[in-house]
C-alpha cells in the first residue's frame, strides 16, 4: 500500500483557514496561471489544456480539451460551470467551491480566454449557501483585482461572470437541464440531438459546460506546464483527482490522489487516506463512482483509480464518490436508499424514468420490509431492462437523459452480487439487519 | 414589445426542403420520405403506425412519452430512438416490430399504467382514448404492478370550462405545449418531480385562456375534461358531421357531434389553410346555445302589446300584408332589411333577392354599423390567411384579434413568433397583438388615416406615437418593398366609437401608398362576408357587383332591381326614427345590442311602423318586433358559408331545428310568394346553382366543386386561375378527429391522389365570364375593383374637457349565443371605463371607483379601471358589455352621426 507524493494540484490551499480569500490566494501564487495564459495566444492555451488530457471531473470523463475544440464558432458563445454537485456521497466540488473559490474563478477566466468567450455562468447548487456566498465574494473581489471585467490585467481581454444558484434539483446537474434552469425554465434535460451544448447550448448559442474541479486544475496547469501535469497519472488518466470517500471507513473525507498510481485499496485502507474499515469489519462492496455507478466487490479493490481501468471492469469513476459498505450493510436497504434518491429526483419528463423509478423503489422497499416475493427479483431486473436495455455497462437507454439509465446500476449490482441476501429477506419476511429507518 | 418567444431547443421542427426526398427502409420496405420529415410522420404516410402519446403534428416534438421508440440504424448499430423526434435520413433503416421495440413499447405502456387510475368506466375519454386503444393494441395483457398508486384530489376545476384529473394524466405535455407554444399563454405547466410530477395551473391563477378547450381535445387521456361535455355522453353514442363554425367569420372547420338531437360537443378539424385543428372556446362551447331552453320555436305576433304564439300562415300573412301596405303607401324604399350575417350564403341570397327583386328596396345591410363600407369590403385586393401569415410585413389595423377572430390571432401569433413575420400594429389601444408586434403604433380615435399617410410618406412622428415604435414600423414597412408587394393588411374596426369610413379612409391611404399591398378583412360576424357577396348590402348585387354595373344583367335574371342606392344600417335606423322609412325586417339582426349607437337603434325600432324579426332567439331587438319568425340556426341547416378571406365552405346539418323553426331561405321564399313574387328556387341546392350562375365572384364554384375532396378546406371565391381538380368524396367512411386528436380525418388520410379522374374547372373570377351551359345571356357584370370612393367625415377638434372614446369588442359579451351558453355566460366581464392613470387622478378616482361618463347621447356610471397602455385623453369602454344600470354601456354613449365620440369623465 503506497500513497504517491504527487503534488496537491487543486487542494494546495486547504491548510489555510482563509483559503477562500483573495489575500491568501494571491499570497499562494493565485492568478499567476491566468497571467501566464494571457501572455499566450488563446489557441496555445487551448493546446496546452488539450495536451494534458484533462478528463472531465464531473462524471462523464470527457476530455476538456476535446470538448473545447467542439465549440461551434459563433458571435456569441458561453462558458457554464456546473457546480450543481448533488449526488448522495459526492462532495468534492463542494469543498473546492467553499474553500478555494478564487481557484475556480481563475480557471473560469483561463477557459474563457482560451475559448474567447466573454460571458461565463457559475451555476451552484442551491443548498451550498456558504459556497454561494464565497464564490460570489470571490467573483466580486476578482472584479476589484482586475481578474474579471474589462481589460483583464491590461491584456485587452474582458469577461463577465454571473453566479447563479440552483433551486435544489439533482437533475440540474445534467448539463442540458442546467442550461434550461439557467434560462429560467423548468430543469428538464433537453432531448438529444443536438448531443452537445458546444453546438447548441445556452440560449441556443454554443456553450462549453465544465465541472468545478476540471476548471480548478487550469491555474496549476498553466503555472506549472503541461509536462508537470502529464507526469502524473498514467495513460489518459493524467494528474490527480479528488475522491469523496464515504461510508464505512475510519476517515471519510475528500482526498486528492494521483490517478492510476493509486488503487481503491490505497484509498480505502491507507492510514493517511481512508484508514480502513472501522470495528474490524470486512469490506462487503463499494461504489467506485457515485450513486449512478455499478458496485464493485472486495476482489476489485486492487483496481487502479483510472478512468479506463475502472471502465473496463464494468463501472466508472463517475462523480468521484467512493462509498464503502462493510459486512454489516444490508444491500437491499442500500439499493432501496439509492433508488429512492433517483425516484425523488427524477425530473418526471419521460415515462420510463418517472414511473420506473417509483415502481422500483416501491418493490425494493417491500422486499426490505419483508413483503417481497421471489418473482420480484426478476421483475426488478425486467423493469431495469426497460430503463436501460440489457442492463449492461455502459448502459443503453430508453430515456432522454442518463438519470433514468443509471437507476438500475445499484439494483442490478445488488441482485447480481447478493442474490442470496434478497432471497433471505423474502424467505424470512424481514431484514436480517433489523427494520429499516424509512426516513 | 418582447414576447416570451419560445427559445426551446427541444425539437426544432424539422426543416423540410420543398420537394427534396430521401430513400429509406421501414421494416424492410423501401420508403420515400420528405427530407427532414419526422420519422413518425413518414412512417404513417407509408402505412406504418407508430404508437404515440406526446407527439402532435401541430406541436413541437419533445420525445417525452417514449412510446414511439423504434430501432434506428446508426453508426453504433441499431438503437432505440423516438420516432417523433428523429428526422428521416438517406439510407436510414428503421425497424418498428422487433422484439427490442416490442419490449420497449410494452415497458412504456406498463409504466404509464402504473399510476393511471384505470377509471375508464367513469371517464369521458373512455371509448376514444389513445391510452386505452394503445394498451389494447400494444401493451402487455396484465400489469405486474402491485403497489399503491399515486393519489391526487380530483377533479380540480382549473377554469370555468376545464377540469383537471391529475391521476389520469400521463404527463405528455400536450396541454403545456399548446398553451405555451400555440396560444402564447403559459398558464398550465409541470409542477413537482418524479412520479409526483403534475400538470397544473400556477397557484391562485386560473386557466383563463380563450383556447382552453383545445387542451381538452388534444389530451390523450381523460386528465382534462370540459365542464359542458363532462358526463353527457359516451363517444360511441355520438354521431357527427364535418362543418364550419360560424360564431365568427374566420371559418374554423369543426366536427359537430350530437346525441339525441342535442349538440354534445365540437372538435376542431385540421384545416391547414384555416384553423389548423384549433378552435376558440366560444366556438367550441357556445354551440351549446343551440340546445338552449329559450330558443324560439313558434311564430309570435304582437297583440295588445304582447307577443303571442301564432301559426306560420297567420304570421307570414300578416308580414306580407303589412309590408305590402307600407310599400304601397310609402314606396319600396321605405322598407329595410337588416342583418344576414347569421345566415348561410344560400339564405342570404334568398333574402337579397326577396329584398331587391321582390320588395324592391336597396336599403339592406348585413352589417350593423360595426363593419366597413361594403364597396370597400368587396373591392379591396384580397389576401388569404396563409398569405397574411407569410407576408413580408403584416399590418394590423383591426379590433383586438384575440377578441374578435380568436383563431386568426393564433395564426398571426405563430407567423410573428415562429416565422418572424414583422407585425406592425396600428391601434387606438394595446391588445393581444401588441406583445409580439415589431411595432405598435398608437393612433388617436379617428386619426388612423392621417397616421398612415404620415407613415407612408415619411412624415413627422405624431405626438401620440413613441418615436421608437414609429421608426420600427417605418423600417418594417420599408423592408417589405416600396410598392407594398409583401405587405398584407388585416383590416377591421379597431373601435366602434369611430366612424367606419375613417378606417376605410386609412385603408384607402394604404392602398394608395402601397399599391401592391393586399388586405385580409377582419370583419367578425359569422357569414358577413358571404352576406355581402350575396348582395345584402346597399348598392350591391350578388357577386360583388354594384347596383349600376349589375343592373341590366340582374334585371334579366331577377326581373327587376332597385332604382337607386339604398341606406346602410345607420341610414335605415335614422330613416325609421325620422319617419322617412316605415318597416324593417331584422334577419338574425339585433341592432339594440350590436349597432354602436344604442340610442339611434332604440329610436329606429320605436319609430318603425312595422318590425319583423327572423331569429333563433328573442333578442333584445326581436322582443320589440311586431312579428317574430323562428329560424333554424347553426348546425340545424346545410348550405355554405364564406369566411374573411372569401373561402366558401360547407355547412352540414346535424340537428333538426326545434319546434316550428324554418330555414331562412324558406321564410324568404314564402314571403316572396305572398308578396306576389317568386324566388324561383325550391331547395338549398337550387339556390347554390343559381348563385354560381349569377354571381360573378362565384363563377365556376359549382356544387360538384364544393362537394369534391379538394374542397374539404373550402374554395376561395373567386376561383384562382389554377384549375381545381375534382375527385369523388370518399364517403361514407366516418371521420374520426380523435384518432389523432384534432388532426386529419380518416377520410382525408385515406384519400387517393388528388390528380386525375376529373374535369378541371376554372373561372376568371372577377372578369367577364359568360355563364356556361345556360345558352346565350348578357355577359356577367364585373365585380367591383379598387379604388372605390371613400367619404370620410371631418374630425371635430377635441375640446380640452373631454376625452375621446374607444370601444373595442370582447369575445364574451352580451351577445345572445354567449348568454344562452351557461358555461360562457359566467365569463362575461362587466363593463368598466379604462383610462390612463393621470386622467383618473385628475378626477381623484382610483381603480374600482365609480366614474360618470357623459356624452352628447347619454351618461352612465361605470367602475374605473387603470390602463397605462392607453394614451392620455382617451377612455375605453368595451362594446356590448353591461354594468349595473347600464345595459350595453358603450352603446348608450356612442353617437353614430359623429365621426368620433367625445365623453367627459366626472365623479358621480
Question: Summed up, what is this model?
Answer:
The complex is a heterodimer of chains A (439) and B (908). Helix content of chain A is 41%, strand content 12%.
Textual characterization of the structure:
The complex is a heterodimer of chains A (439) and B (908). With 439 residues, chain A is α/β, with parallel strands linked by helices. Chain A folds into 3 domains: 22-229, NADH-ubiquinone oxidoreductase 51kDa subunit (Rossmann fold), CATH 3.40.50.11540; 236-324, Ubiquitin-like (UB roll) (Roll); 331-428, de novo design (two linked rop proteins), CATH 1.20.1440. Chain A has helices at 22-27, 32-39, 42-51, 64-69, 92-99, 101-115, 129-145, 175-182, 212-216, 218-230, 264-269, 307-312, 331-345, 351-368, 375-387, 402-406, 408-417, 419-428; strands at residues 78-83, 119-124, 160-165, 207-211, 233-234, 237-238, 240-247, 253-258, 283-287, 321-326. In chain A, a hairpin with a 2-residue loop joins strand 5 and strand 6 (237-238). In chain A, helix 3 (42-51) packs across helix 6 and helix 5 (92-99) crosses helix 7. Chain B has 908 residues and is an alpha/beta fold. Chain B folds into 5 domains: 21-210, Ubiquitin-like (UB roll) (Roll); 235-286, N-terminal domain of TfIIb (Single Sheet); 316-371 and 529-698, 3-Layer(aba) Sandwich (Rossmann fold), CATH 3.40.50; 376-522, Dimethylsulfoxide Reductase, domain 2 (3-Layer(aba) Sandwich), CATH 3.40.228; 803-906, Barwin-like endoglucanases, CATH 2.40.40.20. Chain B has a 7-stranded mixed beta sheet, sandwiched between helices. A 6-stranded mixed beta barrel of chain B has the order 31-35-32-34-33-36. In chain B, helix 2 packs across helix 3, helix 8 (345-359) packs across helix 22 and helix 13 (448-456) runs parallel beside helix 15. The model of chain B is unreliable at 1-15 and 727-775 (pLDDT under 50). Classes of the chains: A alpha/beta (439), B alpha/beta (908). The interface between A and B is large, with 40 and 42 residues.
Amino acid at each position: 500500500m503506497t500513497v504517491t507524493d504527487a503534488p496537491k494540484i487543486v487542494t494546495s490551499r486547504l491548510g489555510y483557514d482563509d483559503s477562500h480569500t483573495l489575500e491568501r490566494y494571491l499570497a499562494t501564487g493565485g492568478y499567476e496561471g491566468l497571467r501566464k495564459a494571457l501572455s499566450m495566444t488563446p489557441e496555445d492555451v487551448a493546446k496546452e489544456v488539450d495536451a494534458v488530457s484533462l478528463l472531465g471531473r464531473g462524471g462523464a470523463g470527457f476530455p476538456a480539451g476535446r470538448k473545447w475544440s467542439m465549440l461551434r464558432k459563433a458571435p456569441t458563445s458561453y462558458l457554464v460551470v456546473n457546480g450543481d454537485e448533488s449526488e448522495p456521497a459526492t462532495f468534492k466540488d463542494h469543498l473546492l467551491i467553499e474553500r478555494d473559490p478564487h481557484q475556480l474563478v481563475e480557471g473560469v477566466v483561463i477557459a474563457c480566454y482560451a475559448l474567447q468567450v466573454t460571458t461565463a455562468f457559475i451555476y451552484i447548487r442551491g443548498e451550498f449557501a456558504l459556497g454561494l456566498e464565497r464564490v460570489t465574494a470571490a467573483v466580486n473581489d476578482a472584479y476589484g483585482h482586475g481578474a474579471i471585467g474589462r481589460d483583464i490585467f491590461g491584456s485587452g481581454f474582458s469577461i463577465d461572470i454571473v453566479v447563479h444558484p440552483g433551486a435544489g434539483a439533482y437533475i440540474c446537474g445534467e448539463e442540458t437541464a442546467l442550461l434550461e434552469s439557467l434560462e429560467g425554465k423548468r430543469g428538464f434535460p433537453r432531448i438529444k440531438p443536438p448531443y452537445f451544448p458546444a453546438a447548441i447550448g445556452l440560449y441556443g448559442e454554443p456553450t462549453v459546460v465544465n465541472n468545478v474541479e476540471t476548471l480548478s486544475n487550469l491555474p496549476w496547469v498553466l503555472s506549472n506546464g503541461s509536462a508537470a501535469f502529464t507526469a502524473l497519472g498514467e495513460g489518459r488518466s493524467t494528474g490527480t483527482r479528488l475522491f469523496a470517500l464515504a461510508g464505512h471507513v475510519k476517515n471519510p473525507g475528500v482526498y486528492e490522489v494521483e490517478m492510476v498510481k493509486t488503487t481503491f485499496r490505497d484509498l480505502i485502507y491507507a492510514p493517511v487516506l481512508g484508514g480502513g474499515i472501522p470495528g474490524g469489519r470486512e469490506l462487503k462492496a463499494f461504489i467506485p463512482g457515485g450513486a449512478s455507478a455499478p458496485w464493485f466487490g472486495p476482489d476489485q479493490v486492487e483496481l487502479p483509480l483510472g478512468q479506463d481501468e475502472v471502465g473496463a471492469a464494468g463501472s466508472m469513476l463517475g462523480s468521484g464518490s467512493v462509498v464503502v459498505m462493510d459486512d454489516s450493510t444490508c444491500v437491499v436497504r442500500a439499493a432501496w436508499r439509492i433508488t429512492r434518491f433517483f425516484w425523488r429526483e427524477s425530473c418526471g419528463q419521460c415515462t420510463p424514468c418517472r414511473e420506473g423509478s417509483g415502481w422500483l423503489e416501491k418493490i425494493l422497499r417491500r422486499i426490505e420490509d419483508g413483503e417481497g416475493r421471489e418473482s420480484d427479483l426478476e421483475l426488478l431486473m425486467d423493469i431495469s431492462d426497460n430503463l436501460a436495455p440489457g442492463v449492461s455497462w455502459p448502459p443503453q437507454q430508453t430515456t432522454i437523459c442518463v438519470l433514468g439509465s443509471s437507476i438500475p446500476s445499484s439494483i442490478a449490482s445488488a441482485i447480481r452480487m447478493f442474490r442470496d441476501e434478497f432471497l433471505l429477506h423474502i424467505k424470512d419476511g424481514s431484514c436480517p439487519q433489523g427494520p429499516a429507518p424509512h426516513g | 414589445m418582447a414576447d416570451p418567444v419560445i427559445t426551446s431547443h427541444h425539437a426544432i421542427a424539422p426543416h423540410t426542403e420543398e420537394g427534396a426526398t430521401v430513400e429509406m427502409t421501414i421494416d424492410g420496405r423501401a420508403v420515400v420520405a420528405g427530407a427532414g420529415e419526422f420519422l413518425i410522420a413518414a412512417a404513417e404516410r407509408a402505412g406504418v403506425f407508430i404508437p404515440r402519446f406526446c407527439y402532435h403534428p401541430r406541436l413541437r416534438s419533445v420525445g417525452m412519452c417514449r412510446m414511439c421508440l423504434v430501432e434506428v440504424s446508426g453508426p453504433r448499430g441499431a438503437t432505440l430512438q423516438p420516432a417523433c423526434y428523429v428526422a428521416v435520413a438517406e439510407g436510414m433503416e428503421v425497424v418498428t416490430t422487433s422484439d427490442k421495440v416490442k419490449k420497449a413499447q410494452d415497458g412504456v405502456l406498463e409504466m404509464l399504467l402504473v399510476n393511471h387510475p384505470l377509471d375508464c368506466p367513469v371517464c369521458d375519454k373512455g371509448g376514444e382514448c389513445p391510452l386505452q386503444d394503445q394498451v389494447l393494441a400494444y401493451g402487455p395483457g396484465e400489469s405486474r404492478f402491485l403497489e399503491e398508486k399515486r393519489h391526487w384530489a380530483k377533479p380540480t376545476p382549473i377554469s370555468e370550462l376545464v377540469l383537471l384529473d391529475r391521476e389520469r394524466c400521463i404527463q405528455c405535455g400536450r396541454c403545456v405545449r399548446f398553451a405555451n407554444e400555440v396560444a402564447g399563454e403559459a398558464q398550465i405547466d409541470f409542477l413537482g418531480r418524479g412520479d409526483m410530477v403534475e400538470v397544473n395551473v400556477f397557484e391562485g391563477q386560473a386557466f383563463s385562456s380563450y383556447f382552453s378547450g383545445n387542451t381538452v381535445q388534444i389530451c390523450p387521456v381523460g386528465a382534462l375534461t370540459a365542464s359542458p361535455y363532462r358526463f353527457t355522453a359516451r363517444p360511441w353514442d355520438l354521431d357527427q358531421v364535418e362543418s364550419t363554425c360560424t360564431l365568427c367569420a374566420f371559418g374554423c372547420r369543426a366536427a359537430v357531434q350530437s346525441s339525441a338531437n342535442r349538440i354534445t360537443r365540437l372538435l376542431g378539424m385540421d384545416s391547414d389553410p384555416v384553423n389548423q385543428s384549433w378552435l376558440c372556446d366560444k366556438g367550441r362551447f357556445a354551440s351549446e346555445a343551440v340546445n338552449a331552453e329559450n330558443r324560439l320555436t313558434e311564430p309570435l305576433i304582437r297583440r295588445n302589446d304582447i307577443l303571442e304564439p301564432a301559426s306560420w300562415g297567420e304570421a307570414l300573412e300578416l308580414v306580407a300584408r303589412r309590408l305590402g301596405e307600407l310599400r304601397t303607401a310609402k314606396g319600396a324604399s321605405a322598407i329595410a332589411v337588416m342583418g344576414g350575417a347569421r345566415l348561410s350564403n344560400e339564405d342570404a341570397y334568398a333574402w337579397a333577392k326577396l329584398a331587391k327583386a321582390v320588395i324592391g328596396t336597396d336599403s339592406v345591410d348585413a352589417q350593423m354599423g360595426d363593419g366597413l363600407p361594403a364597396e370597400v369590403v368587396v373591392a379591396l385586393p384580397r389576401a388569404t390567411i396563409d398569405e397574411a401569415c407569410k407576408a413580408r410585413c403584416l399590418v394590423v389595423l383591426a379590433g383586438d384579434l384575440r377578441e374578435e377572430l380568436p383563431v386568426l390571432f393564433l395564426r398571426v401569433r405563430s407567423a410573428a413568433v415562429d416565422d418572424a413575420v414583422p407585425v406592425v400594429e396600428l391601434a387606438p389601444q394595446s391588445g393581444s397583438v401588441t406583445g409580439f408586434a415589431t411595432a405598435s403604433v398608437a393612433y388617436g380615435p379617428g386619426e388612423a388615416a392621417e397616421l398612415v399617410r404620415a407613415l407612408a410618406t415619411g412624415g413627422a412622428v405624431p405626438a401620440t406615437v413613441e418615436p421608437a415604435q414609429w421608426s420600427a414600423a417605418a423600417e418594417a414597412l420599408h423592408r417589405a418593398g416600396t410598392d407594398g408587394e409583401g405587405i398584407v393588411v388585416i383590416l377591421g374596426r379597431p373601435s366602434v366609437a369611430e366612424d367606419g369610413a375613417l378606417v376605410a379612409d386609412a385603408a384607402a391611404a394604404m392602398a394608395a401608398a402601397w399599391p401592391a399591398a393586399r388586405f385580409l378583412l377582419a370583419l367578425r360576424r359569422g357569414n358577413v362576408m358571404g352576406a355581402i357577396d350575396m348582395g345584402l348590402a346597399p348598392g350591391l348585387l350578388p357577386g360583388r357587383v354594384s347596383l349600376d354595373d349589375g343592373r341590366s344583367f340582374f334585371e334579366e335574371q331577377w326581373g327587376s332591381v332597385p332604382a337607386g342606392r339604398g341606406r346602410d344600417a345607420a341610414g335605415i335606423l335614422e330613416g325609421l326614427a325620422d319617419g322617412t322609412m316605415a318597416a324593417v325586417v331584422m334577419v338574425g339582426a339585433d341592432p339594440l345590442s350590436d349597432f354602436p349607437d344604442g340610442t339611434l337603434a332604440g329610436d329606429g325600432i320605436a319609430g318603425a311602423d312595422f318590425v319583423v324579426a327572423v331569429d333563433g332567439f328573442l333578442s333584445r331587438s326581436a322582443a320589440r318586433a311586431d312579428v317574430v319568425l323562428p329560424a333554424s340556426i347553426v348546425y340545424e341547416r346545410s348550405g355554405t358559408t364564406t369566411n374573411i378571406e372569401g373561402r366558401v365552405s360547407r355547412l352540414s346539418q346535424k340537428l333538426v331545428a326545434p319546434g316550428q323553426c324554418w330555414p331562412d331561405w324558406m321564410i324568404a321564399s314564402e314571403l316572396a310568394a305572398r308578396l306576389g313574387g317568386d324566388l324561383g328556387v325550391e331547395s338549398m341546392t337550387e339556390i347554390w346553382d343559381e348563385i354560381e350562375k349569377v354571381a360573378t365572384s362565384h363563377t365556376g364554384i359549382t356544387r360538384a366543386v364544393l362537394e369534391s375532396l379538394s374542397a374539404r378546406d373550402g374554395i376561395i371565391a373567386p376561383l384562382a386561375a389554377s384549375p381545381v381538380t375534382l375527385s369523388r368524396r370518399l364517403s361514407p367512411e366516418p371521420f374520426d378527429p380523435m384518432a389523432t386528436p384534432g388532426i386529419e380525418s380518416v377520410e382525408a388520410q385515406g384519400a387517393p391522389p388528388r390528380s386525375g379522374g376529373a374535369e378541371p374547372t376554372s373561372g376568371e373570377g372577377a372578369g367577364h365570364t359568360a355563364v356556361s351551359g345556360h345558352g346565350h345571356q348578357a355577359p356577367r357584370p364585373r365585380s367591383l375593383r379598387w379604388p372605390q370612393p371613400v367619404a370620410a367625415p371631418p374630425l371635430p377638434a377635441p375640446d380640452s374637457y373631454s376625452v375621446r372614446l374607444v370601444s373595442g369588442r370582447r369575445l364574451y359579451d352580451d351577445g345572445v349565443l354567449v348568454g344562452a351558453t351557461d358555461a360562457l355566460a359566467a365569463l362575461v366581464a362587466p363593463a368598466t371605463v379604462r383610462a390612463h392613470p393621470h386622467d383618473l387622478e385628475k378626477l381623484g378616482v382610483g381603480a374600482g371607483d365609480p366614474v360618470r361618463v357623459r356624452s352628447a347621447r347619454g351618461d352612465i356610471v361605470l367602475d374605473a379601471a387603470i390602463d397605462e397602455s392607453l394614451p392620455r385623453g382617451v377612455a375605453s369602454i368595451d362594446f356590448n358589455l353591461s354594468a349595473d344600470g347600464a345595459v350595453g354601456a358603450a352603446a348608450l354613449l356612442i353617437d353614430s352621426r359623429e365621426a368620433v365620440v367625445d365623453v367627459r369623465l366626472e365623479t358621480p
